[in-house]
Write a structure and sequence with these properties.
GO molecular function, one term: hydrolase activity, acting on carbon-nitrogen (but not peptide) bonds, in linear amides
Organism: Blastococcus aggregatus
CATH architecture of the largest domain: Sandwich
CATH class of the largest domain: Mainly Beta
Number of helices: 6
Helix content: 10-25%
Structural class: alpha+beta
Protein name: Formamidase
Bound molecules: zinc ion
CATH superfamily of the largest domain: Acetamidase/Formamidase-like domains
Largest sheet: 6 strands, mixed
Pfam families: FmdA_AmdA (PF03069)
Length: 417
């Protein structure tokens, strides 16, 4: 096992740990730990809500989830010798749930969760159809995930960090803030909001205190969106064996990570659509000096995906086009066509006895594949969503004899209101 350079004590809150991480992006967050090119090391990560979501049969905690506190990130890690213009090579050597024999109170200790967030508190990809809060608890047995809330399904985890990235420069941060505020200004009262401006409330910026904290918290970027520095990309293929090349914008690169997922479908569509958990990640870092210029990677990481995908050979795929549910034609709108493909899949799965919420949760959490199949055939883009048939313990393919009805069990817990 590599040296644990960033330990977390599961019994303590994020802010009471030996090293206090951060939940906003800012170049002035001081590095907690320094590593060298060529080092391999272990980092512990809290689940993104720092323990606010519980292993029970109520979704009230998801309804009330404190979005101002996320994501709690481990780091920043300074990489010796890294300078703006370099590419930081990050190998994901290993990644997994909290190593512990018994299941405990924290997500990652033998279990994890998926949430549908209420429109009033974050929303999701299909928030018009699913405006309320729901939660599913998944149990981990080795690599496998099953749920008392979604019977008839089990799948192999595709463990990955939802979020990893380097610190922005002051200049890059101010660009983010300007362009996101301009978008918000087009419809400032929208629910859910178009973007999330800096929010000093609940901002944690490592060891920054007092006036330094106050100044930085007023401009530090929220962690929800992916940006030029990587960030919350939620790429399910960042599994063990991945190699990521991050642009470096500040001295030391200041790498941070968190938001570990046991599994996720492409798009993480329920917003908290992955199986969220705390755990560990083993990383190896190296540098390509001047690599941003050499390889034309001036922004946005490039990567080599991991090599430990679950092996599913047969898929049932659903397609959608850029036509609204009301029948209005839109022009090559791939967001809409992916929504329509997902809604078709949900409609289909309900014929087997699942509730729409159960079907939505399966699409968010299981290793489903999403694709932009066609983006040029005016006026319709075509998106597709591929479900591995092997995740079901019954025959999910269409046949002349009709669908087998499963017992949906207790179903997906909904929040009280
Ligand atoms: Zn996540």
């Amino acid at each position: 096992m590599p040296k644990v350079v960033y330990p977390l004590d599961s019994s303590k809150k994020f802010t009471d740990q030996k090293y206090v991480g951060h939940n906003r992006w800012h170049p002035d967050v001081p590095a907690n730990v320094t590593v060298r090119p060529g080092d391999t090391f272990r980092v512990d990560c809290r689940e993104w809500f720092d323990g606010a979501i519980h292993n029970d049969d109520s979704a009230d905690d998801v309804r009330d989830a404190p979005l101002s506190t996320v994501h709690v990130l481990s780091g920043p890690f300074a990489v010796e010798g890294a300078q703006p213009g370099d590419l930081l090579i990050v190998d994901i050597v290993d990644v997994g749930p909290i190593p512990q024999e018994d299941s405990g109170p924290l997500a990652g200790q033998g279990w994890g969760y998926t949430g549908i967030f209420a429109t009033q508190n974050g929303g999701g990809f299909l928030t018009e159809q699913f405006p309320d809060a729901y939660k599913v608890i998944w149990d981990f047995t080795g690599q496998k995930a099953t749920s008392r809330h979604v019977p008839g399904v089990s799948f192999t985890g595709i463990v990955h960090p939802g979020l990893m990235g380097t610190a922005p420069s002051a200049d890059l941060l101010s660009r983010w803030n300007r362009r996101e505020q301009a978008l918000i200004d087009t419809d400032p009262d929208r629910v859910p909001p178009l973007a999330l401006p800096p929010l000093p409330q609940d901002a944690i910026l490592g060891t920054l205190q007092g006036a330094d904290l106050e100044r930085a918290a007023a401009e530090a970027a929220r962690t929800a969106p992916p940006r030029e520095n990587g960030g919350n990309q939620d790429i399910k293929n960042f599994t063990k064996g991945s190699r990521v090349f991050y642009p470096v914008f500040v001295d030391g690169a200041k790498l941070s990570m968190g938001d570990l997922h046991f599994s996720q479908g492409d798009g993480e569509i329920t917003f908290c659509g992955a199986i969220e958990m705390g755990g560990f990640i083993d990383l190896h870092v190296d540098l390509i000096k001047g690599g941003m210029e050499t390889y034309g990677v001036s922004e946005n990481a490039i990567f080599i995906p991991g090599n430990v995908d679950p092996r599913y050979e047969r898929w049932l795929a659903f397609s959608g086009t850029s036509v609204t549910l009301d029948g209005e034609q839109r022009y090559l709108d791939s967001h809409l066509s992916y929504q329509r493909a997902c809604l078709h899949a949900i409609d289909y799965l309900t014929k087997f006895g699942y509730s729409p919420e159960q079907a939505y949760m399966i699409l968010g959490a299981a290793p489903i594949e999403g694709r932009l199949s066609g983006v040029v055939d005016i006026p319709n883009s075509c998106s597709t969503v591929y479900i591995p048939t092997g995740i079901f313990d019954f025959d999910v393919e269409p046949s002349a004899s009709g669908p087998t009805r499963i017992d949906p069990g207790m179903g997906v817990p909904k929040s009280s209101f």
